[in-house]
Amino acid sequence: MKKVFLILLLLLFIPSLSAGKNLYEDQLNRGIRNSEPYSYLLINQSKIDRDNAKDILKEALRYSPDLPAVYFEMAKASFTFKTGGAFEAFDYIIQGIAAYKRNFWWSFMMILSLFTSLVLSFIVSLLIITLIRLPRDIPLLSHDLKEEKTRIMLLLVFIFAVFGPLYFLGSLLIIISFYMRKRDRILVYLYLLFLLASPWVYKAFSAGLSVPSSGELRAVVQVNEAKGNRYALSVLQGSNDPGELFSYALALKREGRYSEAIGIYNRLLTVNPDPRAYNNLANCYVAIKDFEKAEELYKKSIKIQPLASSLYNLSQIYRETLDFDKGDEYFLAAQQLDAGAVSNFRSIFGRNPNRFVIDEELPYPAIREYAFKKIKNAPSGLSIIPPILIPLIVIVMIILFYILDRRLKNRAYRCNRCGKIMCNKCEKHILWGHMCLQCYRSLVKLEELDARERIARILAVYEYRKKKKDMIKLLSFILPGSGQIYAGYPLYGLLFLWPFLFLLFIPLANLVFRVEMAGFSHLWLNICAVFLMFMVYLISNIITRRRLAKGWL
Hints:
This protein has three domains: 2-102, Alpha Horseshoe (Serine Threonine Protein Phosphatase 5, Tetratricopeptide repeat), CATH 1.25.40; 107-204 and 385-549, no CATH class; 215-373, Tetratricopeptide repeat domain (Serine Threonine Protein Phosphatase 5, Tetratricopeptide repeat). The protein is an all-alpha fold and 553 residues long. The chain has helices spanning 2-12, 14-19, 21-29, 36-48, 53-63, 68-78, 83-98, 104-147, 165-177, 186-196, 198-210, 215-224, 230-235, 242-254, 258-271, 275-287, 291-304, 308-320, 324-337, 339-347, 353-356, 364-373, 390-407, 437-443, 451-478, 482-486, 490-512, 523-549; strands at residues 413-414, 421-422. 70% of the residues lie in helices and 1% in strands. Strand 1 and strand 2 form a beta hairpin. 38% of the residues are buried. It has a two-stranded antiparallel ribbon.
């Protein structure tokens, strides 16, 4: 598959391989600053030609200055164990991360990956808590049902299991929560709040499925990130959406269809006097040499909101008409407003209309807002009920859990020393420290037991506690936080388990949500996730063993 991809790119860019600088100049003349397919091709070429990798990647960076992948590959090629090489590599990594702000698909896929990891890790964490606690808590429930038949009402919570697996998990959590400490029942409320928000979660997931497949969104992104114009001209024609119209007009202008672009910008300005639209409309008049009209429109744009592009473009107009004093005045104003932007404007300067004056593009927040408009209705996902009914069902679950928790006071529990199941109904004595009568007598009423019986009891307690400690150590070694959950501290265990699973899911989610056609992923994020995951694992095991040594678990 990779070979096919490379062949297709080679066929697509054969003229570029022979023309070199001519292709680069031609792209700038059409308003294209980012030729990502060609840069991806150069990245793959740099992996083959290691000796010239840095030179090849510099060329890739010239063709796509807003592509994070190039910066990360430059970091790999620049890294050495010398101080200079390490700092150079680190600088490229920082530049690559900064490029996310200028590349919608890279940032969108990273956010989608993080969101997916966060939600899945939360659900899986609570599923693991349930699986660990069920074998220990089901016997307690069974004991309660035998001692008092009316407690069959506890099983009412399983009514909600018919609505889907997430509700079944919620029912199990409610059941085992009755045998948790009071503060640990916060887990149930956290999960029920998650179910309450699940319609919005489903909608967010639908974005991951529907947004990348939207042709209109891809066209808007291509134009406003200066990646191409022709796709937008074929997809956005006839649209009434303001963002799509703005992008379509920009594509028309960059392809030299100035009269059509002027008509669309005027149409947009009748609805909303946007300074970006005024700037781009003025640029169309610059292209047809109507400098007087362009000057008027630039000033309207600046009056609404001073933009570095409008100030710079106005300085170009004054210099073109030989009014150098005003030209210098507006140029300095543009520099004071955004020196970095002016530097970028000058780096692509040319006599072509797309390089002589600078177009305004939709910023990243505007593209993101437009993207969320493209989200379709959320799928039903793991629920068989309409999203509109989910809040009502969850509220009923919360009320039922609260009522049952308040009414069921005397519940079965285990002896802290030997693990025996008991309740206040079957144990008539007032006990100290949640101990059974036998353990209480072996510690306090020594005269009631002979030596052999007391020693046998002590050995039995020792064996039970040893097995419990061994199980805690084993579970903690397998999965951080699971030892604390088994010991009866699920909320404390979640503080380690959830971050660990979140970090674990990030590299897996990045494999699914790859960036565009080239299949590049967020390697730096994967490395950070693996490192932090190891730290969580190490800290969790250290704390668990210290708590075991002090007898707190």
